[in-house]
Amino acid sequence: MNEQHILNASYFWDELLRISIILQRPVVQSQILVIAGSIFLSWLLAQRIWFEFEKKFPDISKFEEKNLKLLWQQYGAALLYYLLTPTLSLIGINLVKIWFVNQGWFIGYLNDGIKLLWIYGFYRLFLVSLYLTFPLKSVENYHYRFFAPLFGLFVVGLTINLFTDLSKLLHVSLINLFGELVTLGDIIITVAGLYFWIVGTSLAEKILLYLFESEVRKDPRLSQVVALIMRYFLIGLGIVLIFGYVGISPTALAAVTGGLSVGIGFGLKEVISNFVSGIWLIFEGALKPEDIISIDNEMSQVKRLGIRATTVQVIKDNSEKIIPNQTFFTQNFTTFTGTNTLVYRSVTVGTSYQCEPQKVIALLLQVADENTFVLKIPTPKAFAINFGDSSIDFELKFWIDDPLNGKSITSSLVCDIWQKFADNNIEIPYPQRDLHIRNDNAIMIEQIKPKNSC
């Protein structure tokens, strides 16, 4: 901020003293009490009205669950739910205002309260449009992380401005850092600005992915990587812009970072290594969200690729595992979706020696062709691979395009092969043991022979 407008810290305490004196005046206290009481009573009355409304109209009161047949009724219910409290509060305060006017009392803060309630009403109307347009969980998440804090900060600023000049208050110097005066406004803009910029960047990413949902479905992995790169680029740009706007001295910043560099080098060595690895993974494209990988002998799906760590979901038990990014550069891992999603699988089965091998091969290929999950290109192959002790062994090779369904598709083929062999009188043999007792010396001899039939 411009140093010629920077005020001494004593101004801050003088203003606090002046505000405390104003708040001690009975006319001000009565208006604040009326505003607070009206809002609280209106909230209680709104809760009661909504409770009765839910009992009478249970279908449309659950407007979070979209119903195309009742869409406009649900929209009306949402408006009732979100606008009931501010509407009742406005009615209550306006009635009290009329009474104050008739009594000839001061109503300045009542007018300010009415303005704030109008702003609150439009804010609630904005929430209705969000809840009816975007997914409920996403709106709830960003409502409490972004919109509610931003609106709260806005209301606090307006409220403070009712009692003092907020612009002057923000120019109050609090500390001197390396010869640079740091004002209250600098601190608020830096902390709040960074928070809202980072969360807002994530929100903008979600909105873009939602708006271009059809394009995202064509290649969700590439879309998420592009969004991730864009998010971190904007975060870095925002940090530079905010620091530049606040006017943080490069000398001061270099002094702070230089003093911490030794500690960062030792204490945060792993964090920096993971950070660099994350940047490299993003730009290299070796790993993308929704990829299917095998790491630590566990098949997993990449859910989120972050700067510090990657979140994967373990397929076998649906648990989530946080893996530091540098692990992907220090350990071997297998990806099933690197250049494509095609995965090779095979089923091995044995048949009786009495069965014709060419017939068995033809039946195996027929089973693969009838399964809708087995790809036709590349074409399935079947081979006679071995003369076993009890059977001729065959292998059916096939391709699928969904690594996550490999086990279920293999199970389906095994069941289909069994049924196909049963329909064509082809036996899957098993070892059968015959015991022969020689009477001359009472020695029991065990022979193993296959049971063959076709």
Write the layout of secondary structure elements.
Elements: H1 9-23, H2 26-56, H3 58-61, H4 71-103, H5 108-133, H6 136-163, H7 166-170, E1 173-177, E2 180-183, H8 184-211, H9 213-218, H10 220-246, H11 250-267, H12 269-284, E3 292-295, E4 298-305, E5 309-314, E6 320-324, H13 327-330, E7 334-335, E8 343-351, H14 357-370, E9 381-387, E10 392-400, H15 406-423, E11 431-438, E12 443-450
Helix content: 55-70%
Q: Return the string of H and E elements.
A: HHHHHHHEEHHHHHEEEEHEEHEEHEE
**Rg estimate, integer Å:** 36 Å
Strand order of the largest sheet: 6-5-4-3-7
**Spatial shape:** elongated
What portion of residues belong to β-strands?
Answer: 15-25%
Average pLDDT metric: 81
Number of helices: 15
Please describe the biggest sheet, giving its number of strands, its sense, and whether it closes into a barrel: 5 strands, antiparallel
Low-confidence stretches are: 442-448
Write down how many β-strands occur, each being a DSSP E stretch of 2 or more residues.
12
Strand-pairing-aware structural class: alpha+beta
State the domain count.
3
* Spatial separation of the terminal alpha carbons: 93 Å
Notes on the structure:
The chain has 454 residues and is an alpha+beta fold. It has 3 domains: 3-171, no CATH class; 268-335, SH3 type barrels, CATH 2.30.30; 343-429, 2-Layer Sandwich (Alpha-Beta Plaits), CATH 3.30.70. Helices cover 60% and strands 17% of the residues. It has 15 helices and 12 strands. The protein has helices spanning 9-23, 26-56, 58-61, 71-103, 108-133, 136-163, 166-170, 184-211, 213-218, 220-246, 250-267, 269-284, 327-330, 357-370, 406-423; strands at residues 173-177, 180-183, 292-295, 298-305, 309-314, 320-324, 334-335, 343-351, 381-387, 392-400, 431-438, 443-450. The protein has a 5-stranded antiparallel beta sheet. Strands 8-10-9 form a 3-stranded antiparallel beta sheet, covered by helices on one side. Strands 1-2 form a two-stranded antiparallel ribbon. α6 (136-163) packs antiparallel against α8 (184-211) and α8 packs antiparallel against α10 (220-246).
